[in-house]
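Please decode residue identities from the backbone states below.
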């Protein structure tokens, strides 16, 4: 007979999901009520305000899509892109490629601006593409590329798009709550994220926010949105303003409790404090990795603090190290994707997992495993280098 499933307690320091705050797990265990219950509707309104804080915007539309970040991405594309449109898509990793796929599935034409994996999107290349394609409707880019740990200049890219009368679609799955993101001030139009990264929440929801300019485009489409489930013209009957809500789908009630609690935690910490915390612990992790002799893929000025891609030492088998970390230390780190598969490890410092204990645990475990495997590293130096960094910060 099949038994109940009891997962091990892991330390999650991969590219996501991240460790979930116990308060969020407790929130999920609260009594389930109906998704049209007046108390639940009240919580929905609170959540929209909390999401505006997280995104740093006053846009009226701020809500979670009832599915993971990939559905948030599709929500932005299927609502804004129509057959025959031209969309400039920036690709500097895996997720820019997924944007291209979305554009094509909407019957539109992607104009690709490609950069080396591990580098930020080149603003000058984007400007050239906008000048060469004055009929482009949208500029799509990834703010925080999860596959490489590169952070692009969302503010500068948005300014370019506005100058050329383009909307922006922006992937903030790994940046929301972890590094500076000011949707309203920067004028980003359609922004999507995920709950399982720097918000420390469980996977399964995708916060999105749309500017009024973007919503006007959605409301005045020539064609029906190709996805019934993700059509904002329908979804807003449930998530829109006002006390009366129209049934659209059965919302994941307890998962939404979890997101509400995650956003309350972010508000309690203060979003700028959260950004500072991610930077602080990244600096210590960086000091440890560099003392060990591991190199970062992304240059200093383009590097995400919450997602660290480091090169695998020569002669070391990627999967063997990750397996030992998991089985011997209950520590999860991530493998490289696409062009970086087998070349890098992706080490996350996200949300609740972004703390001194995890930094030191990760460095100590990696030092021990790599040393035991005979890897060419400077053994025994990583933890002390991280501690020296912390002493310098205190």
């Amino acid at each position: 007979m099949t038994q109940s499933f009891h997962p091990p307690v892991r330390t999650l320091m991969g590219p996501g999901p991240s460790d979930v705050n116990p308060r969020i797990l407790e929130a999920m265990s609260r009594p389930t009520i109906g998704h049209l219950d007046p108390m639940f509707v009240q919580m929905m309104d609170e959540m929209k305000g909390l999401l505006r804080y997280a995104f740093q915007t006053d846009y009226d539309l701020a809500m979670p899509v009832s599915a993971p970040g990939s559905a948030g991405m599709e929500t932005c594309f299927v609502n804004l892109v129509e057959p025959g449109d031209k969309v400039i898509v920036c690709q500097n990793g895996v997720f820019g490629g997924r944007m291209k796929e979305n554009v094509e599935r909407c019957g539109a034409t992607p104009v690709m601006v490609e950069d080396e994996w591990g580098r930020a999107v080149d603003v000058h290349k984007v400007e050239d593409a906008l000048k060469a394609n004055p009929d482009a409707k949208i500029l799509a880019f990834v703010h925080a590329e999860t596959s490489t740990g590169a952070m692009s200049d969302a503010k500068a890219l948005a300014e370019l798009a506005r100058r050329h009368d383009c909307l922006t679609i922006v992937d903030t799955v790994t940046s929301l709550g972890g590094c500076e993101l000011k949707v309203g001030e920067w004028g980003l139009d359609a922004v999507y994220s995920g709950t399982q990264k720097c918000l420390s929440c469980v996977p399964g929801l995708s916060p999105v926010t749309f500017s009024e300019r973007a919503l006007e485009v959605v409301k005045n489409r020539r064609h029906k949105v190709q996805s019934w489930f993700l059509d904002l013209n329908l979804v807003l009957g449930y998530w829109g303003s006002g006390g009366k809500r129209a049934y659209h789908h059965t919302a994941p009630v307890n998962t939404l409790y979890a997101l509400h609690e995650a956003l309350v935690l972010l508000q309690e910490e203060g979003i700028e404090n959260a950004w500072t915390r991610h930077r602080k612990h990244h600096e210590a992790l960086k000091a440890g990795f560099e003392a060990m002799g591991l190199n970062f893929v992304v240059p200093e000025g383009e590097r995400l603090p919450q997602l660290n891609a480091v090169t695998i030492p020569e002669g070391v088998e990627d999967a063997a190290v990750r397996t030992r970390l998991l089985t011997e230390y209950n520590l999860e780190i991530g493998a490289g994707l696409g062009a970086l598969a087998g070349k890098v490890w992706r080490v996350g410092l996200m949300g609740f997992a972004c703390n001194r204990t995890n930094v030191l645990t990760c460095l100590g475990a990696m030092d021990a495993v790599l040393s035991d495997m005979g890897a060419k590293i400077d053994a025994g130096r990583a933890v002390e280098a991280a501690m020296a960094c912390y002493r310098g910060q205190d």
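Observation: The mean pLDDT is 96.
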